[in-house]
Fold this sequence. Notes:
By secondary structure, the chain is mostly helical. The chain has a single domain, classed as Alpha/alpha barrel (Glycosyltransferase). The chain is built from 15 helices and no strands. It has helices spanning 7-24, 37-42, 61-78, 99-119, 125-141, 155-172, 177-196, 222-237, 244-256, 288-297, 305-317, 319-323, 342-353, 362-374, 392-405. The two termini are 23 Å apart. Residues 1-29 have low confidence and may be disordered.
Amino acid sequence: MTMTMTMTRRLAWIVAVVAAIAGAAGDEPAAPERPRAADVAKEPAPPPPDLHPEAPEPVPPEALEATIKRGVAFLLEDQNKDGSWGSPELTGVEIIAGIGSHQAFGAAVTALCVSAMIEVDDGSDAVRRAIERGEDSLFRELPLVRRDRPMLIYNVWAHAYGIQALAHMEKRRPDDEPRRDRIRALIRQQYDRLTRYESAQGGWGYYDFGAGTQRPDSASTSFVNAAVLVAMHEAKRIGVEPPEQVVRRAIDSTLLQRKPDFTYLYDRDLRSVPVMDINRPGGSLGRSQACNLALRLWGDPAVTDAVLKEWLDRLITRNGWLDMGRKRPVPHESYFLVAGYFYYFGHYYAALCIPQLPRPDRPFYQDHLARILMAVQEQDGSWWDYPLYNYHKPYGTAFALMSLRCCRKETATTP
């Protein structure tokens, strides 16, 4: 997840633009007189919008599998010779990133692709070889990933998705004890990195525009916290316990960013502007599912089935708010300041919310989500939402494949 300036700077820019527009509107007719409070009180309040979508057309299993097969074929073709996915080749947008940032991007994207290939493994030799080559790349690269420089902390994504991939890898060959020990040791090393690069606010951010201190002065970012917490929960399920206090601080910081309607602030530094567009429901559409899932997995009783359903309903009914940001090259230029990179991220964590629901409720959302993702697959079999160097197609495809795996009605399991 990347952006070209801090949210604080962007907020200042937005305020300046609004002020300029207001000044230019001096010749506009005066606004009509506001009705008196007594008159307003007599009018009945409008009913809340019905966000629950209509029943979807069921997706034929063979159509779903054909879509997944095309996505897998893309990843097989796109894998690098060293087993990794993605590269610093500038096919998309150039953002501020040094050599260490690209190392982090590459490790994070490779981890996502390894997880996706394991999840949708069809048993073929081609997929098996791709998984093994990807695993070898992670064994080599994950131990080397660090903070690029005081300002750039993109490595938190590599640690999070690295942990998630390692948890998948550990379960793939359960009888190979030396390999499992190596994987568990690498997970603990990633825990150490996340502890080292934890924000002073608790949780994690990926920029430090403050003091540049050893413990980052980064803004605790809700969706980064969510991704890390979900990954740590997967590792906990295979018996590798994450640091308790680090988890607790991440949960507390995410809760501080939650609003009563289960929208989540972009980051903790925006608490003073809770109704800024990016912090409203439309702006939170790609974050709420991840944050709700993370907090539910870690025992938050407030995230009920009703909350998960409401935000799945919102994602489906108001999908256009995310879709209008998809493929835009400038982060946050779309409505509600939505950035393109929220699209497949948001749908992936929405897909992980579905197995949390009672079994009778799942097909409704599985069919809706599958239809959304099947409709935006590219001709080459990939999916992408934000042109990030040459990482965008593999990470988008990995997210989409793991989402569609959750849409297989007979295989959806509770994470």
